Automatic annotation (TrEMBL):
Gene: cobD
Membrane-spanning segments: 26-44, 64-84, 310-328
GO process annotations (BP): cobalamin biosynthetic process
Subcellular localization(s) per the UniProt record: Cell membrane
Source species of the chain: Acetobacter ghanensis
Protein name as catalogued: Cobalamin biosynthesis protein CobD
GO cellular component terms listed in the entry, alphabetical order: plasma membrane
Pfam family, one: CobD_Cbib
Amino acid sequence: MLFFPLSITLPVAALAAGMEALWGYPAPLLNVIGHPVMWVGTLIDRLERALNRADTPERTRRLLGFVTLALIIAIPVTLTSLLLGVGYTLLPAPVMLLVQAALASTLVAQRSLWQHVRAVATALRHNGLTGGRKAVSMIVGRDTTTLDEAGIVRAALESLAENFSDGIVAPLFWTALFGLPGAVFYKSVNTADSMIGHLNQRYGAFGMASAKLDDLINLPASRLAALCLMLASPRQQWPHIWRTITRDAPRHRSPNAGWPEAAMAAALNTLLAGPRSYGGKLTKDPWIGSGTSGATVTDLDRGLRLYRRACGLLIAGLLCVALGGMIAG
């Protein structure tokens, strides 16, 4: 892995966040070459099919899952480091800083997350429950066919909060520490967790290493995401939001998702999480927040505005830290 000083990685993260907020991932590029996460997904799928055999003993499957995770990290990060090394020998450092930022921006999802969640609000308004259920099914894994408006809105808000952490704060956090290789490292692990880090018969042993590492590397970002959502709220709400975070975040079944979800719930004065259905089976997850469970599409609009302010705050913070580092250096 190629290491860069913070005087490079911090500006890369700040520029990547700004670039992605402005234009997202270009659709023509997606149509021609796909998305980097799709490339990693293809690697994961091939390794899983080759190594995760149902007749293999559980201990061996755990070991093979660890080997798979190591390859999932090593291959993309090594290729990225080699390409950057070549780039820095051919191009001036300021140009390569912009190249790093542009490439890192493809691993951030501010714009696409906003578009997907906004689509839920638009569908609810124009196509009612049928449209809302279809739109929210694109961003959540729970059963959506019987959700009412409140259930649709809560699902969308939870996805917005959790993915603010996983899809924006976390990749930028690792970019700020290690540049583009850090972003590639994070997205490789996060993609592995989303594909094989499931507690079921097929993936329980094989994907355990991916799930555990994903929990670990998301720990700082989830706390930072909650802080951003709190600071993006009116100042008089901060004590209430902080109390809700510290009280309810540990109650979530995920060690990380509860933090931004609790911040979102408190900021909007609504309840999130709670019982939901997966594959026809109802879970008994506790509620997060202390408001009402009867969320409306107006609450989703408020959540989107809060999200945009939090993203702006994050970008501003990265820019300030980067500029401060450049001045101090």
